[in-house]
Design a protein that fits this description.
This protein is mainly β. It has one helix spanning 58-61, and strands spanning 8-9, 11-15, 20-21, 41-42, 45-50, 56-57. The longest helix is centred in the last third of the chain and has 4 residues, at 58-61.
């Protein structure tokens, strides 16, 4: 299993809604970039595949 600090692809996702400016914090604490609230467009996504146990590591993808 990969260590948390290794860069890479840990999931794939699809955009499920048009980008919007969010003005309130949602209950998805871990995924929301708080500095963007009320300032920048954000889109909701649905994870289509999770690769937590076998991520595509950046060091391998660069080869």
């Amino acid at each position: 299993m990969a260590h948390r600090h290794q860069s890479g692809v840990y999931a794939s996702a699809e955009i499920i809604d048009q980008p919007k400016i969010l003005d309130k914090q949602l209950d998805i604490e871990d995924w929301l970039e708080k500095s963007r609230l009320g300032a920048k467009l954000q889109a909701f996504v649905r994870f289509t595949k999770k690769l937590l146990g076998t991520p595509l590591l950046r060091e391998i993808l660069k080869q």
